[in-house]
């Protein structure tokens, strides 16, 4: 029931390649007609079990890799969504990488260097909590961060024009095309939270002692730059949503629907892949029946 809904309707959440992108056209509080919290949570739990089952085959098949990129403003729910969707998967087949501000060593390389080191190998699912997209969103709001990277020809923020950002978009698209052509399936999620909901979640962090560690004074100053961040995301998403690595714009005001939708889209994509368990691998090419007979014989001899 649930997956049938998604197979025909989830495309409405994709930012279309080659078309103007405006976040105002995406309702952060959207819920599909007829869906309610109880059945949404129930479907999400069902989907994550299916994801775990397919992940076992995905790992054994060892032919594809899956890269899931989560981007959002603070308090949109990246951490909780990742935790809920992948709660049932086996840890040996899934990796997680959160990206903090670049280190001194990372600043000495191109901006994709630290990301490329963490892309998944075949059979693996890798989750990025933030990613290379910080380098065309956060740095666009704070161009002074670019100066710390000491690029040739950039002496001041006045040297960082539209040509600079267009070149970065091209490099990102080329990088992601390289990964896709070598067997990596890329899914990019922007968790779209409204200003009112974001403020309420910040307030909740301040009310609860167990949430204080998630909040800092910098969060307040960054929230005042919300519109600048949204403009940066609109430009980045519009220039880097492609047929081979699309952006999904996920309504994030209702966490239950956000988690449901992400789990359903991930499951749908995994179901599209021609996955199968590999056959029995033996040097002598004996059949499973022959091997079973040999095992039983050895057991009887003990």
Q: Specify the helix fraction band.
A: 40-55%
Structural class: alpha/beta
Estimated radius of gyration: 22 Å
- Gross geometry: globular
For the record, the CATH class is Alpha Beta
Order of helices and strands: HHEHEHHEHHHEHHHEHH
- Mind describing the biggest β-sheet? 5 strands, parallel
**Euclidean distance between termini CA atoms:** 52 Å
* Proper CATH architecture: 3-Layer(aba) Sandwich
Would you kindly provide a written description of the structure presented here, covering whatever features stand out?
- The protein is of the alpha/beta class and 302 residues long.
- It has a single domain, classed as Rossmann fold, CATH 3.40.50.300.
- The protein has 13 helices and five strands.
- It has helices at 2-9, 37-61, 78-85, 104-107, 113-116, 138-141, 144-147, 162-181, 195-207, 217-223, 226-240, 255-272, 288-301; strands at 65-72, 94-98, 125-129, 184-192, 247-251.
- Strands 2-3-1-4-5 form a five-stranded parallel β-sheet, sandwiched between helices.
- Helix 1 (2-9) crosses helix 12.
- The protein is globular, with a radius of gyration of 22 Å.
Brief summary:
By secondary structure, this protein is an alpha/beta fold. It has helices at 2-9, 37-61, 78-85, 104-107, 113-116, 138-141, 144-147, 162-181, 195-207, 217-223, 226-240, 255-272, 288-301, and strands at 65-72, 94-98, 125-129, 184-192, 247-251.
